[in-house]
Amino acid sequence: MNPIRYKDNNLFIENLSVEDIAKENKTPFYCYSDQFINSQYDNLTSAFDMDIRVFYSMKANSNASILKLLLNKGSGIDVVSGGEIERAIAAGASGKDIIYAGVGKTDEELRYAIQSKIHCINVESQSELERINDICEELKTKQDIAIRVNPDVDAKTHIKITTGKAENKFGIEFDYTNSIYNIAANLPNINITGVSVHIGSQITSLKPFKKAYTIIYDLINQLKNLGHNIKHVDLGGGLGVPYSEDETIPTFLEYANLIQSIFGNTNLKVYIEPGRLLLANSGLLITKVIDVKTTSQKTFIIVDAAMNDFMRPTLYNSYHEILPVRNNLGTSNKLYDIVGPICETGDYFAKNRKMNSVKPGSLIAIKSVGAYGSVLSSNYNSRPQIAELLVKDYEYAIVRDRIEVKDLIQQEKIAHWL
Ligand code: LLP
Q1: Distance 42 CA to ligand 1 centre (A)
Q2: Mean pLDDT of 172-193
């Protein structure tokens, strides 16, 4: 059962009424369902009839409690910065739980990763490879690496989250793969252990995965024939989630069957790096209606959350369902623009949206915000970042405090000549 549902026209997340939570917490705030994340992880892993290891892609939601929850379930963590390594370790990860991807890793970040004895670095350029070798020399150690390959496959997703085409900045150009593996093999402090690929995010068909994974399968055979000891394949993340009820997405079983049909009979260890699919539909952004304003052309519902709290609609034109928390004011035949208070026309959550009636003071819930929600937030317009709550059954915990304006002011200094 979906843990986010109405009971007697009152929105619940697990066994708590959102209205009750909002009585104790200032809006806007994020809240996530513990049960949802748990069951996504279980359903995903049990869809496979082979050994796979999940490395949760923490860029989707890096809250310490979310990391802890997934680490407790046996997940590893896919990180993209030194900061994410630090957070993962603070949440209880050990180096061997961590895979480090990312197109621009600084020497300082690489040194930290190597000192933390992380499981694998997914390397994205020859210079990165050489820098890892040099840092290992300095630290008198060796590092396991995979090369991230760019298979030149169109993931057919939003242009800003497509990563596997030749024109994208990610990975090693396909035709150069053999050469880079040969270079890696000759570097004394590098252990080649794998091949990695990630073609994009919110992918809603299996076709691009099939194409990319088949290319990688053939490549691995070729690399093995050339004498490279490839022990694992890291297939990245990217499987999409339904943001509305009529969106059809491949099931976990279909995704697992595809992976199994390609890699099932190899003796490779298979890793996946899901982010969105574990988190997106676990989360709500709860916000209060400040005003309802009707002009000759539109009716605007102005809420106390804004694009600084949740960027996806304006950044990717993404669709998110929006519901009244208490669904007691009846239906409306109006179309609404649901907008925030920021001084930008791009500050909206939905345009021309049909929605049941609300009035100033009503609470509304923006759905499917658990992934790439809070992590993309900022303090624009001096709006401090909002709280995050994790709900489990009849209780909740505040898993990130709301930041106060005084904290923002405190970080700044007036230049000495002023
Ligand atoms: N692995 C790598 C190397 C990645 O770059 C990403 C996402 C993932 C795994 C996880 O992908 P997922 O399973 O979440 O699709 N802010 C955008 C999404 C950016 C995705 C970046 N990379 C959005 O809100 O749609």
Answers
A1: 20
A2: 95
